[in-house]
Amino acid sequence: MLNGSGAMNYTFGAYSSCCYFWDEAGGMWSSQGCEVGRNTSRQVTHCKCSHLTWFGAKLFIPPNAIDLSSAIKNFANFDESPALLATFCAILGMYLVALIWARRRDLKDTSKVGLVAVPDSDISDLYRYEVTVYTGRGKAAATTSNVTLIMCGELGESQAVTLTDDNSEVFQAGGIDSFFVTTPNPLGALCYIRIWHDNTGSNPSWYLNQVAVRNIDSNERFYFLCYRWFACDEGDGEVDRVLPVAGKEELAQFMYLFRSKATRDFSDAHLWFSIALRPCRSLFTRTQRVTCCLSLLLCTMLANVLWYQVPQSQKEDVIFESGFIRITWHELLIGIQSSLLVFPINLLIIQIFRNTKPRPLHKDDSCEVKSICSRSVTTPAIALQDITTVTRETPDVVKSWTHSERRLDSPYKQRRGEEKKNLDTIERPTEQPSPVSIESFDYVDGAKPLFKSPAEANARKSKKAKEHVGKVLLPWWFVYVGWALCLLTACTAAFFTMLYGLTFDKPKQHAWLISMFFSLVQDIFISQPLKVLGFALVFALVLKKPQGENDEKLNSELAKDRQWLEEHVGQRDKRRNAISNDKPKYLPPDPSALQRARLQRFKERKMFEVIQEILFYALFVWVVLVVAYGHRDPNAHVMNQGLEDVFSGRAKHDHSVPDGHSLLFQVSDITSFWNWTEAVLIPGLYSESWYNGRSDKPGFLADHTSWMLGTARMRQLRVKAGDCKVHDVYSGYLAQCNGPYSWDTEDTTPVFRPGWRPAPSNYSTAQNAWKYRDSSELRSLPYLGKLALYSGGGYAFDLGKKEKAMAMLAQLKRDKWVDRSTRAIFVEFTVYSPYTNLHCVGYLLLEVLPSGGTSPFSELLVTRIDRYAGNFMIFVLLCEILFVLFTVYFTYKQGKEIAREGVAYHFHEYWSWVELVLSGCSWTSIVLYFVRFGINKSTVLTYHKDTSVFVNFHALAASDQVFGYVYAFVAFFVSLKFLRLFRFNKRMSLLATTLKCSAKELAHFSIVFGLVFMAFVHFCYLIFSTELYIFHTVLSTVETLISVMLGKFSYERLLQTNRLLAPFMFFFYSIVVVFILINMFISIIIENFQRVKSQNDLQSNEYEIVDFMTEQFRDWLG
């Protein structure tokens, strides 16, 4: 287009296309003899070649164009893009906070890595083992108790070894702890281990995943799977278990491999989750992971902004389409190009961090080496020395546990069975190692040992040595290369992202940031977890091989290093003193003590569950009520009443109107309807001048405060002429009759001539009042009136401006637009009050009876379309998000309880049904919220297309109304469920137990009461329905008889209808229902109340928890 200087501005889009053919002689793609034709577009490449062969094309979709010189100048106006500025400030702030937190956690992790020499180990022992304990993740999985282990093999068993570390905490949630254990005698192939804890400390409960034992000399591994609780208050309540060795079949089971692989990848391979779940043994630190996440995020933002809303042709080449999934070549190419921009550099950075050696310490830093060599991933390269075989004299007497003396082993003698009998024939080795090496054993299905020849043993040993060779790591200084690449990539991506973002206008900028946010959330919480689960599935189905740990080589070197052994492993004399007793240092608790601890722990957990439930549910109730009352404005009723007064005629009643029919609710026929439109409707829809002669802006109503959105519309529904048959007796007097309205009898003739005269087939008119349009054209919903359910179609027209509306109504009155076939007339409008930010969707309905009378009706639905205006409504939005999170949590909790208890048992209680209904209503309200959001967006867009025509907001108001109804049920059941929290109160529980005990009797009583009550309902309806309005339907009769029970009834009106039957009915109803049945109901309640109160067995035993809580609070207060 021409600008002010007369120059012509053009916008160009560039893309690159090439043509190639496969050169069979050269074995490569070549472009010789081929050129790109002029018919090439973004979707199709036109190739012109001078030869026939296999050929292909390369298509590159260029990113959004940018002028660097002008874009850099936009940095001076960065404050004009608050959303972009806030996004980058938030990213930088969260990165710095996460970096500080990650650095602190990395420092803690250094004390958790490496090998721990247990106090019971002896440097002179020939047989050394690495025991690795895997603690589960989750709530209360860690333990503070003392864990003890006994290893039992085919050649013997070890002493009781306490797995502890004086320098750091062990057995933390998700932790992997390795211990160095020695034995004076060989154990052979391990058969089982016995492991227990003493149930001491502030958190004795412990969840054990598995134990892995590795013979350091032979490098043989034994796995003992558990995945159970060691706790008096979890699982089966045991703290002492015997775990058999896992065979090859168990280690190759799908569930074990899938669970172990998925757990490992979620904590290490998932870049975002691994910030919090990083394994302590990984060389990839948390600070490095946080920085890599920053680089990945900024690169993804750059790729997103480069190709955001890139122009494409309307005709797209669809690759795949199924339901909501649709993939085009354009999207595929952009995805490939974005991936090539984001992933190679970030994958290189991550691999550098993962495969870089720790930085070695200086040799003279001996103090530092001593402090961290046992539990630090940054252990220096210690000069290893081969330990020669230590010749020991066999002690004359070593006091130890014999099989007859060890009471700890007695429960498990039978489990060894025939294996112990076979072991008795094997000669015990002396102080020297047995001539038959442990390597001479092999396994069949991981259980039965078989002797092998020396050649086979040597071959297996060489094979294990090859397997133990670790991967090649980069030099330690490569970590600086990784940091430089990471920070450079992040800064470059941030710079160009801001550069592109500043070229967008605000709507496009906001849309891009929102799409980027949802894309990030989808990638972190959906795509990446699915990828992890997919890899775990393939690993479990295809590879079927358990993975080793990252620091096995480090632990092996430490276990063979003489300097480390001398510093961390005790001497023989000290060990003798440690094992001189008959019993280990920490025994498992005896059954009586365990039972007491179990009861005490049960009460403590119950107490904390009660306190947590009360506080948590009180917060949920508060959130529900904030959301409920946040969407209810006290001004809504004032607006509703004001508009009703304006359009009914009560606000400005003109007594000069003929025959006094100016009020809406006084309209009784067609004539009074036209009088109401002239005297009330038109003056109400359009504002008049103020007292000082000034006029409002066009669009305001007569109240001078409400603004009309678009214009008002009048719609008529008719029935077909002669839709009912005149009886033969009166056929000579009546030509036709018109019945009541129904969807079958509705007149849907496309067009009429004025006066409802039939029109020829080629007739057309510009007056919409005589043309029928269905509900899809009018965008109207069916409407329930007093007499019928009316469809959304009809003969409708817009009123427009005041002069046009008056002239049109006068013309329609002359043409008899309302006649005997008319059954309903709608006046529809939508107004907005800028002072209260409220909208009102109005329906003024006149229902015409077949007899000629009318029934006026009005409905004004007040809603708020722009919900989140003001600080308080932003707070309500946050509460709505909390409500969704609470709903997800309670649904998950209830589903978990159903899975644990079973459907039949779970729904045996009354409160389970209340929770089910509450969850259903909550999810229904959430769905309706998003439905309303979509309707709101669509309706507002329709209104902005043309603000001079009528736009129907009824669907929006109706969805908001239904949402309010459902959410009212949510508030009701939430408040009702709050009573359950008082079940620990003796009086409240007494009432609940009384109703539970009397439920059967009340059920039988309700049958008798219902039959007697319905007998009186039928009698009253059949006798008084023709004379009293309060008995005109069965439902109104039920309401009236209930009012009689409450004493709200006029006996004089009843007596005037029938002087004989009225006193008879009233007398017997009062005697039978009011005096007899009601008192029987009260008697049932009182009798069961006395029975429950006198029998302690019927009362709840949860009062003990209240007493226990009282005692605990007294102890805490001193």
Automatic annotation (TrEMBL):
<keyword id="KW-1133">Transmembrane helix</keyword>
<protein>
    <recommendedName>
        <fullName>Polycystic kidney disease protein 1-like 2</fullName>
    </recommendedName>
</protein>
<feature type="transmembrane region" description="Helical">
    <location>
        <begin position="83"/>
        <end position="102"/>
    </location>
</feature>
<feature type="compositionally biased region" description="Basic and acidic residues">
    <location>
        <begin position="402"/>
        <end position="430"/>
    </location>
</feature>
<dbReference type="InterPro" id="IPR001024">
    <property type="entry name" value="PLAT/LH2_dom"/>
</dbReference>
<keyword id="KW-0472">Membrane</keyword>
<dbReference type="InterPro" id="IPR057244">
    <property type="entry name" value="GAIN_B"/>
</dbReference>
<dbReference type="Pfam" id="PF20519">
    <property type="entry name" value="Polycystin_dom"/>
</dbReference>
<feature type="transmembrane region" description="Helical">
    <location>
        <begin position="610"/>
        <end position="630"/>
    </location>
</feature>
<feature type="transmembrane region" description="Helical">
    <location>
        <begin position="1061"/>
        <end position="1086"/>
    </location>
</feature>
<dbReference type="InterPro" id="IPR013122">
    <property type="entry name" value="PKD1_2_channel"/>
</dbReference>
<keyword id="KW-0812">Transmembrane</keyword>
<feature type="domain" description="GAIN-B">
    <location>
        <begin position="1"/>
        <end position="67"/>
    </location>
</feature>
<feature type="transmembrane region" description="Helical">
    <location>
        <begin position="913"/>
        <end position="935"/>
    </location>
</feature>
<keyword id="KW-0732">Signal</keyword>
<feature type="transmembrane region" description="Helical">
    <location>
        <begin position="290"/>
        <end position="310"/>
    </location>
</feature>
<feature type="region of interest" description="Disordered">
    <location>
        <begin position="402"/>
        <end position="437"/>
    </location>
</feature>
<dbReference type="InterPro" id="IPR046338">
    <property type="entry name" value="GAIN_dom_sf"/>
</dbReference>
<dbReference type="GO" id="GO:0016020">
    <property type="term" value="C:membrane"/>
</dbReference>
<keyword id="KW-0325">Glycoprotein</keyword>
<dbReference type="InterPro" id="IPR000203">
    <property type="entry name" value="GPS"/>
</dbReference>
<dbReference type="GO" id="GO:0005262">
    <property type="term" value="F:calcium channel activity"/>
</dbReference>
<dbReference type="GO" id="GO:0005509">
    <property type="term" value="F:calcium ion binding"/>
</dbReference>
<dbReference type="GO" id="GO:0050982">
    <property type="term" value="P:detection of mechanical stimulus"/>
</dbReference>
<feature type="transmembrane region" description="Helical">
    <location>
        <begin position="1030"/>
        <end position="1049"/>
    </location>
</feature>
<dbReference type="Pfam" id="PF08016">
    <property type="entry name" value="PKD_channel"/>
</dbReference>
<dbReference type="InterPro" id="IPR036392">
    <property type="entry name" value="PLAT/LH2_dom_sf"/>
</dbReference>
<dbReference type="Pfam" id="PF01477">
    <property type="entry name" value="PLAT"/>
</dbReference>
<feature type="transmembrane region" description="Helical">
    <location>
        <begin position="512"/>
        <end position="543"/>
    </location>
</feature>
<feature type="domain" description="PLAT">
    <location>
        <begin position="127"/>
        <end position="244"/>
    </location>
</feature>
<feature type="transmembrane region" description="Helical">
    <location>
        <begin position="1002"/>
        <end position="1024"/>
    </location>
</feature>
<keyword id="KW-1015">Disulfide bond</keyword>
<dbReference type="InterPro" id="IPR051223">
    <property type="entry name" value="Polycystin"/>
</dbReference>
<feature type="transmembrane region" description="Helical">
    <location>
        <begin position="962"/>
        <end position="982"/>
    </location>
</feature>
<dbReference type="InterPro" id="IPR046791">
    <property type="entry name" value="Polycystin_dom"/>
</dbReference>
<dbReference type="InterPro" id="IPR003915">
    <property type="entry name" value="PKD_2"/>
</dbReference>
<feature type="disulfide bond">
    <location>
        <begin position="724"/>
        <end position="737"/>
    </location>
</feature>
<dbReference type="Pfam" id="PF01825">
    <property type="entry name" value="GPS"/>
</dbReference>
<comment type="similarity">
    <text>Belongs to the polycystin family.</text>
</comment>
<feature type="transmembrane region" description="Helical">
    <location>
        <begin position="872"/>
        <end position="892"/>
    </location>
</feature>
<feature type="transmembrane region" description="Helical">
    <location>
        <begin position="332"/>
        <end position="353"/>
    </location>
</feature>
<feature type="transmembrane region" description="Helical">
    <location>
        <begin position="473"/>
        <end position="500"/>
    </location>
</feature>
